[in-house]
Amino acid sequence: MTNAHISMSPHELAELALLDAYGLLEAADQIRFEQAFLAISPDIQAEIRRIQTDIVTDETLLPNATPPAELKAKVLKRIHAATTMRSAGLVGIDDLPLRSDIVGHIGSSGRILGSVWTWRMAALVLLGVCLTLIVMVNTRGRHFDRVFEEAMRLHTEQQVELALGTEFQPYMELMRRPTAQHRYLAVEGGQGMIRVSVDEARGDIFLLAMDLGGQEGPCAFTLIAADGTKTASVPVRTDRYLDGVSISVDPAMLAGATFELRDANNRVIATNKIA
Amino acid sequence: MQQVAQGDETAVSELYDRFGGLVFRGARQLLPSDAEAEDAVQEVFLRLWRTADRFDPNRAKLVTWVMLLTRRHVIDRIRRAAVRPKTTEMTVLNEGFRGANESQAASAERNVQLQKVLATLPEMQRSVIERAYLQGFTLREVSIQLDMPLGTVKSALSRGLARLRSNASEDLPDWAAS
User: Fold this and answer.
1) A63 belongs to a structural domain
2) How far apart are CA B123 and CA B112, in angstroms?
3) Mind listing the pLDDT tens digit for each residue in B75-107?
4) Number of Cβ within a 10 Å radius of residue B108
5) Do A18 and A141 fall within a single domain?
6) Mean pLDDT for back-to-back runs of 10 residues, chain A (275 residues)
7) Between chains, do A67 and B24 touch, taking CB under 8 Å as contact?
8) B165 touching chain A per CB within 8 A
9) d(CA A230, CA A259)
């Protein structure tokens, strides 16, 4: 997305600035807002900054709550642990800089740690094998499962947990169900994929997205039932190497359903059927 | 912030002393328990440390940047933690926090100022604020729930939030002692 493509009225800009100050913008709008902010004049930027500062520093509607005294020590301990890991050359997935930063940093200070790229390239090599297979022969699901799991193993469970955050428990819970089955949506002609894990009996689904950074902006996942009924689109982040989302649908929708992944321009970039 | 980026414990300690209380209150406004708010505070400061080298004082004041990050994180946390409604049963949630483990009465008591000012808003603005800001539904989900265009939801939300602050400041003398 370049500045030349940003077209936003002052009214919309102010509206997004306010929503951004409250943390309510979704990823696509946040990107649009940040791009528009960079394109406007300094005096309007100053006004936007003032609006946002007034909002975030307004305490009149905040509850009277005091953090416990021991919370500070917990914060310092976590940062100390993260600092130690970084010093030892160990980087969790969540410590990976955003894609735009990766591009910038490679060209400048070369700050990217060799160990990070090593495992990432290894995983991508494995995925590259998978993508070739899935495009050619869709029935090689079991082989894809094995290779995918090997790629995930490279991340280690701890790093996956860091990446998925609160979605880690739903992910593990669904993975442990013997009734769960997996389908893969590989981006055609591009990089990245989504594994769709489904428990047809209960209507539970977990989307695990990997390496969708080649996309500009977030993608959207949709389930289309055999009768054409569509679920509401679920956003999938592309600014992280891993993203996970758990969703629930009516089990009746799953029989003969199709999965669809669309990019930020609403083009279908990957599709698969449940059976 | 450069010292924070380097993991300087003194710098991180000072950052917490300046903003820890505000971050906690911001988290506690939307999260249903002290424990969750404490977790959120830790995650926010961890994120502040990770992104400290990207802080640009020309873009925003430090307090603005800290609280922008806090609000985004808390909203994202609510959205991720909540049980998403089945697509064929998009029931309207009118009360309380989704997936919360506190009673509605406790929530109302904690946010008495907020609830009082919310009641002064027009129904549509109040409804979108409750769903998007307090319950963590995305704007698209609110649009579907209320059968309203997304642009209308954004406008109603932004006008409602602006009015919320305006009405709150008018009532400020009543809350000065709280």
Assistant:
1) no
2) 18
3) 888 877 664 443 333 333 333 334 344 555 555
4) 14
5) no
6) 55 87 82 84 85 84 88 91 70 42 31 39 48 44 54 55 74 79 77 84 87 79 89 83 84 88 89 80
7) yes
8) yes
9) 10
pLDDT of B100: 41
Q: Considering only residues B76 and B175, tell me which one the structure prediction assigns the higher pLDDT.
A: B76
pLDDT, residue A5, reads 44
Tell whether A11 is covered by a domain: yes
Residue A65 forms part of a structural domain:
no
- Closest Cα partner for A100 from A238, A235, A3, A4? A238
CA distance A240 to B11: 28
Same domain (yes/no): A138, A264? yes
Residue among A49, A57, A63 minimizing CB distance to B110: A63
Question: Does A65 contact B169 at a Cβ distance shorter than 8 Å?
Answer: no
Residues 114-143 of B with CB under 8 A from A: 114, 117, 132-133, 138-141
Residues of A in contact with B150 (CB under 8 A): none
Q: What is the CATH number of domain B2-81?
A: 1.10.1740.10
The dihedral region occupied by B147, where left means phi > 0, alpha psi between -120 and 50, and beta the remainder, is left
Query: 10 Å Cβ neighbour count for A230?
Result: 14
How far apart (Å, rounded) are the C-alpha atoms in residues A173 and A188? Answer: 30
Average pLDDT over residues B143-156: 92
Q: Which domain holds residue A97?
A: 71-115
Does residue A11 sit in the same domain as residue A46?
yes
Q: Quick one: A108 and A126 in the same domain?
A: no
Q: How many domains does chain A fold into?
A: 3
Q: What CATH number was assigned to the domain covering residues B104-175?
A: 1.10.10.10
- Nearest CA distance, B26 vs chain A (angstrom): 6
A243 and A180 within one domain: yes
DSSP classification of residue A230 = B
In terms of Cα–Cα distance, which of A205, A180, A185, A177 is closest to A144?
Answer: A185
Mutation choice for A interface testing from B9, B14, B58, B158 by most A CBs within 10 A: B158
- Which of B25, B39, B90, B103 minimizes the C-alpha distance to A231? B90
Point out the residue among B28, B157, B168 whose CB comes nearest to the CB of A63. B28
Q: Where are the domains of chain B?
A: 2-81, 104-175
| ipTM given for this complex | 0.76
Q: Write down the residue that tokens 């990050």 correspond to.
A: B69
